[in-house]
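Model it.
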Amino acid sequence: MSMAGNLRKVTGLGRAGGLRRVARLARRRPKVDLSHPARSPLGSSVVNCVTYQDGVRVPEDGDLVDIVERVRKSGDGFVWLGLHEPTDREFAGLAELFDLHPLAVEDAVEAHQRPKLERYGETLFAVFKTVCYVEHEQLTATSEVVNTGEIMVFVGHDFVVTVRHGMHGSLGPLREELESDPQQLAKGPAAVLHAIADHVVDDYLTVTDSVQADIDQVETDVFAENGARVDPGRIYQMKRELLELKRAVAPLGRPIEDLATKPIRVVAPEIQAYFRDVLDHLMRAKEQIAAFDELLNSILQAHLAQVTVAQNEDMRKITAWAAVIAVPTMVCGVYGMNFDHMPELHWRFGYPLVIGVISVACLALYRGFRRNGWL
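Modeled.
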């Protein structure tokens, strides 16, 4: 049985609702909103399917299998198939059609993967963590600052298959931007891979700029007059969200470096120069995140120091007032023992004298503590 026959058997291409129908829907509606809350505006995992030749979109008739066969026979151009959170069953036929490795297919379907780059024969499999900044009016101990998703990319000589997970990281604007530059798109699937990597890394820089504004606000609040009263949970929350961002950015360094420096068949040397630019932007994002982490550590330490100083000041005030109160307490305690023979016990001016001595002693202690900054 031929490849097309096997694919029809696995995915039910001959039945209504199969891959052929979805591919036709993709061609009829090339511009879709990828941020739609549903899995796909097309009603399935397929978001778009387009053929490019010499960097220009080519209108195609027929189903996906026929399109791929025509591209392979001509030896020119490539197919870009976009998917959003496909299931195992939906991906099975595509895996056979494009000869994708089962391990890579499993990673693409299951998601929650670490950023990486793997080579399976003539096919590259890349995983990118996408990030977006979550807008919020005020940072609290429970505020979500960074939201993550994933984009998996299969790259061959004549195809690009992108698999997106999450409600952000839309590739629709990126596709339109690439189509406006046919000269770049004519460089083949590797140009699409570079555009996706560049798009993801640019989002990292955008998010780090927004995170910096939150950190600046926390820093301002901590070093304000009542900084000791700032909720430390806000600082810990920022560190947790920064860790989420770091998990997306840090592991991507090695894959981008490989794409920029190592010889890879599906990545032409002229494309590798573009990846070096992406690597430079990625390093800048990593340095910013590392600097943010160090700054948050310093802010947290400063906040804890402020709390300690405030507690010491409170203890000094309490101690000073306790010393002032101790004088009348002592005098009253002595004269409250009810002995018959006590100095000045039956003197007419004994009570005013005791009150005067207590007042003068308390006033002297109060002035002394005020002069020393304890009160």
